[in-house]
Amino acid sequence: MACSSAPHLRSFPWTSSTKPLCPSFTRPNCTVPLPFNRTNRMLDSLPISASLSSTCVGESDVGTTKNTRSTLRELCQGHVPDHVLRRAEEVGYILPTHVQHEALPVLFSGRDCVIQAQTGSGKTLAYLLLIFSVVNAKRSSVQALVVVPTRELGMQVTKVARMLAAKSLELESEQQSCTVMALLDGGTLRRHKSWLKVEPPAIVIATLRSLCQMLDKQILNLDRMRVLVIDEVDFMFNSSKEVSSLKKLLTTYSSINNRQTIFASASIPQHRRFMYDCIQHKWTQADVVHVHVNPVEPMPSCLYHRFVICGKRERYSTLLHLLQSDAPQSAIIFVGEQSEKSKKAGHAPPTTLLIEFLKTSHEGCPELVLLEEDMNFNQRAASLTDVKESGGYLLVATDIAARGVDLPETTHIYNFDLPKDATNYLHRAGRTGRKPFSDSKCFVTSIITAEERFVLQRFENELQFQCEELLF
Ligand SMILES: Nc1ncnc2c1ncn2[C@@H]1O[C@H](COP(=O)(O)OP(=O)(O)OP(=O)(O)O)[C@@H](O)[C@H]1O
């Protein structure tokens, strides 16, 4: 079969190789080649059983299990140690969210799993409960590894893991709690090296760069690893800096035969193709399960999407007007990254300009906080602490805050600049509506020029939501 479809295949985030996946790319346990001249979308629309030996749960169950759900304890009983379940209850995790209800039985069955569910739906707790069901606190070896794209997300996952591992108020004397290490960019890895050598922690939460440093120097050993989680998997495969290390981690540093592999994200573009690649490249076992919750509604239903059209020069005053009329207690304003050209010309970053503007023009403004890539790790950590400790905030951020960051008090998102694609829109919007059992409305408002209307329309089509125009 001719490889004329190679340009299509190159665009898959999952296969960074420019080498086309040629006719030898056949179904597992099957010699019939896949139709290579199909478009990516057509491959996505294949019935999953036709292209994979994996299975998919969740899609047909949408909305049917919400009211008849067992408690988190009932779901986890016999798998997760009692002291962990007590801790979960102490911090308020009583009922499972929809994705936890769908994913936990699959996870406990030991099968590899791709978890795809809306932002803020509780994927983190789902995979952490699996981890606690598997690790043995008495064993001194790394038994579970969670890989995350950013330090901020790593700190958040570590916090939840440590909260579950902490001594339960009721069972204090009996339990042995397991150790959780955060191996994140920007940390002082010297201390971690001696920790890893003397007494390896049971659970490691790592960014890829720091992890690979330890693996390359053979300070960290994954021979006893039983669970590997890759969070925000589509982002990780899409990052040209990370993808080769990620593939090495999945196939060279560890093997699917010794571990259970979990991938999680709210967005997995061309998910059927991804599942296919998982099997072909041996990132997962062939019977990997796709838990896909709410596929027809990729964003939480409590989000209310709006847009305002204005000229480029009126964007500041439009934002000010919106802030004054909405009066949000806690909001995130997303600003595009500064172009290299603008940096070279010595211009101030757009985030700084906006903060300066709001400081001088917005009376009664909640605490103004900045979060962007160019800040050092300590400044970034300080910003997030400020936000969490304040009674209300306006966080001005670049897309560094768009993935995984959990600030449940956020009720309003403003796209001062439009995100670059629909996936980014979904993750920015998903920084609000993060209280799983609340129906309160949250608002996502994009400030656009008339020419940008069609871009937003494209996002609406792709993500199946409706955006209402605000007229001032
Ligand atoms: N069972 C539960 N009961 C109550 N709250 C929960 C439960 N599970 C998770 N949460 C809360 O829901 C919020 C979102 O959870 P989490 O960060 O895991 O979402 P996520 O699905 O990973 O989102 P994203 O895709 O944006 O990273 C958190 O504040 C978490 O504490």
Automatic annotation (TrEMBL):
InterPro entries: DEAD/DEAH_box_helicase_dom, DEAD/DEAH_RhlB, DEAD_box_RNA_helicases, Helicase_ATP-bd, Helicase_C-like, P-loop_NTPase. Residues 104-286 form the Helicase ATP-binding domain. Its EC number is 3.6.4.13. Transmembrane segments: none annotated. The keyword Chaperone does not apply. Keywords: ATP-binding, Helicase, Hydrolase, Nucleotide-binding. Pfam families: DEAD, Helicase_C. This is RNA helicase.
